[in-house]
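Side project, low priority. Logging it here so it doesn't get lost.
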Amino acid sequence: MLLTNEEKRIEAYTHDNTPTVSSEVTPEIPLEDLNLNWREKDLPQRQRTKHVHGLHPYLGKFVPQLVEIFLRKYFTPGQTVLDPFCGSGTTLVQANELGVHSIGCDISAFNVLLCKVKTAQYHLKQAKREVWDILEKTRVATHDDAQQLSLWNGQNRQRTCYETDDSYLLSWYAPQARRELLTYRHYIEVGDYQYKDLLKIILSRAARSARLTTHFDLDFPKEPQTEPYWCYKHSRTCYPVQEAFKFLSRYSKDALDRIGAFARKRTNAQVTIYHADSRALEFPLIDGVITSPPYVGLIDYHEQHKYAYHLLGLQDRRSEEIGPAVQGTSQKACEQYQADIAEVFRNILTSMSVGGRIIVVAGDRRNLYGKIATAIGVEVEGVVKRHVNRRTGRRSSEFYESIFIWRKV
């Protein structure tokens, strides 16, 4: 890959300077002194996925330390930050840690569910009781023959809780895995649980792992894998997953650990989340924005959590996504993307104080954001370039992204 002069400068800066420590940032630090080019040794995965940030896999999220830096530089406790593309909730979680009120908005029902679960306040003992209770009910119902017989009603067989007509669920899950997932879902629906949304996220995460796909292609599998295969991840022959209960069990413990860890850092700052289109929603008054909009032609955000939409019956609003992968990166698609993003920010500016900042994290290889800034009439205070040299999975290519700092005038 050929590097531009700016990208070469960033690489040299990365090697010659110590990366910025997010907790040490103050409002006085100059933008040009920020080194956001963290390597794995500077910012290991356990820190990037600390507490609830690792509650569920999500493609396209920015690292929490990046958000923390700009919260510390431009916001104070008691102010309100907005993320109009809140995704997995990184801005909302980090704002709460620092005592900053936050508002999130997203067109994806799954994203909204995930954000609410991450930022909720829990009675931890009650959450623990519920998580282990539904897991045990599922274990008994799917592994105990006597319990399975109780799902019959006399001589007339009734439809059991683990049957479905959904073609996606029938195709992508082995019979036992499907039975376990659908039984767990059944107990969410009929159980008297206070934290049903938390249980839904545990179920969704297990469903992601239990699909009939290869271990190395969990992001966007193309078709069900029903035969043994050579696994690039493990360098051996692997077999398609046949059960889901082990994932339900594993992620139950992990979820409890993560919400417990966040509870120790959580403040009383308010978190408000909307399932809506940011182009049209009338936002409350805000002090500024930190967001990472969808990249043009890169990810279909509904598609990456397709299993959750089918399993949880979530409302699908993919036709309202901005810049989805299905539309590609043609000139027409890029122009439409610019118009849509500009419309979002114009709408936001009506609710933002003069002098407030909009911080936008974007991979702008097509140079779309300069025109967007001009279109909405903001002052460009600066642009910080960042080398993203650490990815996970098979999508391991390096790339560069820009952090745009705009000011309302």
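Brief comment: The chain has two domains: 5-118+269-300+321-407, 124-151+160-262.
Revisit when time allows.
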